[in-house]
Design goal:
The protein has 666 residues and is of the alpha+beta class. It is 27% helix and 21% strand.
Length: 666
């Protein structure tokens, strides 16, 4: 596809100059070089991508696009994520070029600011822009004349709060905030996030969960083309009231769904056998209905349904629908255009429904594979709609920079990857094999997602930058820092079992760090001059935490002020961090009996950024990049690198460095 919009100004100047020359005296011929086209780039974060994990668990036949990028792109040997290695903090670092000690996005949950208006136990979402104090790359690109798009990116498209650590927002921060407000108003900046406003979650409807009413007067019922008498029902959720009609010829095998009892305009679901065919050579999610547009007070919603099963007499059924979101966009016309083009984007496949048995028994509860096949159809639909959204940005909007995202790998790895970990005391080889199979099939869809973006980039010889937010590892034991603090005499609970901040010197509000309850915080009790002494007490207590065999479970302790290279601490972070031994994760419970104990088996990523399994990737493919390997990089190097490739300045709060010359030098 020819990319022309960035050349319009230069072409107009050439035309004007040619006209002037034609009307003037002949001039000497001067050699000239054509104006170079503006480079284009796709920056995509594949959630939970870690190259060594991928290479050791997935074959090139399963994920050829990833092997293509790793083998023939220019990559660093891993990338240091945010600490703790969490999604919100990692993406903030990618978009802004700074870690949480600067951006105030220190985790998925953060200390809200300013400190004097909140207690040390307060917590706020790191996905929200309210705490953020840094400019993302799409705003910087927009100010420098590029057309920039953000496709379901974190901390957007709301306005960063730029709060002070203590007191009112400074004049400097207010200016930075106003700059972003004006940046989002620019026509050449289109940023959206559907995660901000989920109206209705995914659901499996059955005959017992709907209201049957055979007397509902359906209009245009003759359009249902049925020999059997239709059976009518309704159901209500957060998106509104919906009407259904079961129909068919020899048996009930079709279902019409509408927002009114009318066959006209209804979407039709049919009882197809669960999908078993390979992904290649067919449409993804082909057994889902067409989208039903739903008008909601907060914006347009869409419902797609899949009829997984139905009794011949209509007495029971399994009807699935994915989550329903209002897409938050900084321009209303862009929101409408995206809705019309994609029709029903949703944020995650139905892993939670799968693991709790809504699709049937999963493999780890003795299932026969049917639940896994049903789940995969939801993952297909997620992939299909994410890809459609990317096409809208790249082909319809012709953005110079597309910042994109995909969470599917993270969702499935959280849910089942732990079953493949042989060091788990309850390891089951049969469960491991079935987990490998489902995980492999799901990552094939992640590969389809990446290949789609590579194909888009190749249309215009653009560069694709493949990055991630963190890795993944298995845990079944928990470290509880608040219980440790209580046993060390640094934290107390009141008569109601709540943490008593009037007596507690330190707390862990998120489970990811420990913060001293200084007088900077509302109701804090530790004077600034005593903070270091309290930190020393915390470290001493942490060094005593051991397992049943006397082994330390905290392999390393990090005092934030001693490790600026890790980007820990800062106004919205903690004072002391740690790296757990393998098999452990941390939690914020303050009511358990012991600082160490068992917890459900899970794959997690809220660990130290120094842990190899938490490392993620930074690769450049296409756009003139050749096969190359450079030493390990950092997430904060990504936006400066992409900016230099595009010929623009890095975001103003970035402290990372551009890797462009390194990646291009063989």
């Amino acid at each position: 596809m020819q990319h022309t919009h960035s050349l319009r100004f230069s072409l107009a100047m050439v035309f004007a100059a040619s006209t002037l020359i034609a009307c003037s005296d002949p001039q000497p011929v001067v050699d000239s070089q054509p104006t170079a086209a503006q480079p284009r780039a796709i920056l995509v974060s594949i959630d939970s991508i870690n190259e060594p994990i991928l290479r050791s668990t997935l074959t090139e036949a399963q994920v050829p696009a990833f092997y293509e990028v790793f083998n023939y792109g220019a990559c660093s040997d891993g990338a240091q994520p945010a600490f703790p290695s969490l999604t919100a903090a990692g993406h903030s670092a990618l978009w802004t070029g700074a870690y949480g000690d600067i951006t105030n996005i220190s985790g998925n949950n953060v200390h809200p600011l300013p400190r004097d208006q909140h207690t040390v136990m307060a917590s706020a979402s790191g996905y929200s822009p309210d705490n953020s104090a840094a400019e993302p790359i799409w705003i910087s690109a927009g100010y420098q004349g590029l057309k920039a798009g953000g496709h379901h990116v974190t901390q957007a498209p709301g306005i960063p709060g730029f709060p002070s650590a203590v007191g009112e927002r400074t004049e400097e921060n207010e200016q930075a905030r106003q700059r972003i407000i004006e940046g989002y108003a620019k026509e050449n900046v289109i940023v959206m996030n559907g995660y901000n406003d989920q109206i209705q979650g995914d659901a499996m409807l059955t005959a017992d969960s709907v209201k049957w009413d055979e007397q509902i007067p359906w209009a245009n019922s003759d359009a249902l083309d049925t020999y059997l008498t239709p059976r009518y029902f309704s159901f209500t959720n957060q998106a509104g009231t919906f009407y259904g009609a079961l129909f068919g010829n020899d048996s009930y095998d079709h279902m019409a769904i509408n927002t009114v009892p009318d066959a006209q305009g209804a979407v039709i679901a049919y009882a197809a056998e669960v999908e078993q065919a390979p992904f290649a050579g067919r449409e993804l999610a082909r057994h889902f209905s067409e989208p039903l547009r739903v008008h909601h007070e907060r914006g347009s919603l869409f419902m797609r349904v899949r009829l997984f099963d139905i009794a011949a007499d209509g007495s029971d059924f399994m009807l699935f629908h994915p989550p329903m979101h209002v897409i938050e966009v900084n321009h209303p016309e862009a929101q409408a255009a995206y809705d019309d083009y994609v029709q029903g984007w949703f944020g995650n496949s139905a892993t939670r429904m799968y693991t709790r048995g809504d699709f049937g028994q999963p493999f780890f509860n003795g299932g026969d594979g049917l639940a896994e096949a049903r789940y995969l159809e939801t993952a297909e639909l997620e992939t299909k709609l994410f890809n459609r959204g990317s096409s809208w940005f790249w082909q319809e909007q012709q953005v110079d920079l597309l910042v994109d995202y995909f969470p599917l790998g993270d969702s499935i790895d959280h849910s089942i990857k732990a079953y493949t970990y042989e060091a788990y005391p309850g390891y089951n080889p049969e469960h491991s094999e079935k987990a490998h199979q489902l995980r492999g099939r799901t990552w094939e869809l992640v590969n389809i997602r990446l290949q789609h973006l590579m194909d888009l980039a190749a249309e215009d010889n653009a560069a694709l930058f493949l990055v991630g937010d963190h890795g993944m590892r298995t845990s079944w034991m928990e470290f509880r820092p608040n219980i440790m603090l209580q046993q060390a005499g640094l934290q107390y609970v009141d008569a109601n079992g709540m943490i008593d901040l009037s007596r507690s010197k330190a707390v862990s509000n998120t489970g990811n760090w420990i913060t001293v309850n200084t007088t900077e915080w509302r109701g804090g009790i530790v004077p600034p001059e005593d903070k270091e002494a309290v930190i020393a007490e915390i470290v001493a207590a942490m060094e005593t935490v051991v397992d049943d065999e006397g082994n330390r479970i905290l392999e390393r302790i990090y005092v934030a002020t001693e490790h600026p290279e890790l980007g820990i601490g800062g106004p919205a972070g903690g004072d002391v961090y740690w790296a757990e031994a393998h098999g452990y994760r941390s939690g914020r419970s303050h009511t358990a009996d012991a600082p160490v104990g068992p917890i459900r088996l899970w794959a997690t990523h809220s660990h130290a950024s120094t842990e190899p399994l938490m490392q993620t990737v930074t690769c450049a493919w296409g756009g003139g990049f050749e096969p190359n390997r450079i030493p390990r990089s950092r997430q904060i190097d990504v936006s400066p690198t992409v900016a230099e490739y595009l010929g623009i300045s890095a975001p103003p709060h970035a402290v990372g460095r551009s890797l462009l010359n390194d990646l291009r030098s063989n």
